[in-house]
Amino acid sequence: MRIFDLDRIQDSPLYGQYFGLKDIFHYKGLPTRAGSRLPVEVLSGVQGTCVTKLEQAGALMLGKTETTEFAYSEPTITRNPRNSNHTPGGSSSGSAAAVAAGLCDFAIGTQTVGSIIRPAAYCGVIGFKPSFGRVDTSGLLYFSPSVDTIGFFSQSVDQMRDIASVVCSNWCDSKTKQRLIPKIGIPSGEYMDQCSQMAQDHFYSHIGKVKRAGFSVIEVDLFKDIANVNKSHKTLIASEVAAIHSNWYRLYRPLYRPKTTQIIEEGMAIKLSEIQKVTKEREKIQDDFDLFMDCNDIGMWLSPSSTGPAPLGLTHTGDPCMNLPWSFLGVPALNIPVNCFSNGLPGGIQCTSRYGWDEELIFWGSEIKNCFLQSYLGESE
């Protein structure tokens, strides 16, 4: 039995709000299936801190949401509410779709590569991935413990701020009052080349709105060797998921689906020396990123949330490459929904900043969103 302070709960901005919970989280009284065919008793566990904090703030868990198998790439049956012939993205497919469809007020997901920002963009909702470690990950079936981050989907930035203030450690809204809107960086070069031409045109049309609103914008080649970053990230997460599933995979190998099987077997073949090398490279990339922001006086980055609109069909969940380097860095990321692509599907702008600047990113993201809204209103007059 849970005993809460009712008077305090009723003062919470989350009081009475319903949330969906990605089915890789344990919840008291419900099985955890993780989108897999493994026996549920194998995957059982104890409810974690994040979910309990939300309930203590008066939020109500509505139900579990679909996830790709073990939060990797095998698609679910979930469809995109904006167009049911298209994927909602993954791995937090059900959480993004549930918020977009209005089934719940907000939802919980996770991101290891792009599983918050990409589905948020595909489904046209706010998505927030906090800095790595700012949200307690207890009660989670891990995929890659050194990268896995709990994130959220909501209908507004203000609502996301309310959620973050409850679950993020040492949240302090007053920090945002100390910093004005910073110089904005646009990462060009090989990183941007991963996007479709449609996505680039759509993105730069919105950067034009940001410039016309008076924001300071600089375009720089941030990820000069994005192929190596992508490879290093894959090595890291593959090695960790293989270690986590070693016993289960030995016992239940035929129950694993092909894409999950592939990454586990790739991870099993990775040598310790490779993991150590990638870990050192990651630390250097993180240090270089902070130094780059300091030297160029950049406070926030804007980039496409996806390589284009949600792909047609339900056999895959889309490419997370536009989100990968930010996950590798462990920095906060926020999807801001923007007007639709030419095919009528939602678009999104990805806002990112340096590690620990979650409060600032939420505040600045709200300003960017208002900039877009004012621009749309002006265009309609």
Overview of this structure, please?
It is globular and about 60 Å long. The termini are far apart. The protein contains 13 helices and ten strands. The chain has two domains: 7-225 and 279-380, Amidase signature (AS) domain (Amidase signature (AS) enzymes), CATH 3.90.1300; 226-278, no CATH class. 39% of the residues lie in helices and 14% in strands. The chain is α/β, with parallel strands linked by helices. Strands 2-1-3-5-4-9-10-8-6-7 form a ten-stranded mixed beta sheet, sandwiched between helices. α8 packs across α10 (258-268) and α8 crosses α11 (272-295).
Q: In this structure, how is the largest beta sheet organized?
A: 10 strands, mixed
What's the CATH topology label of the largest domain?
Amidase signature (AS) enzymes
Helix content: 25-40%
Any guess at the CATH architecture of the largest domain? Alpha-Beta Complex
Can you describe this structure in just a few lines?
By secondary structure, the protein is an alpha/beta fold. The chain has helices spanning 6-10, 49-56, 93-100, 117-123, 157-167, 190-193, 197-212, 226-244, 246-252, 258-268, 272-295, 324-329, 358-380, and strands spanning 18-22, 60-65, 106-111, 126-129, 149-154, 183-187, 217-220, 298-304, 333-338, 347-352.
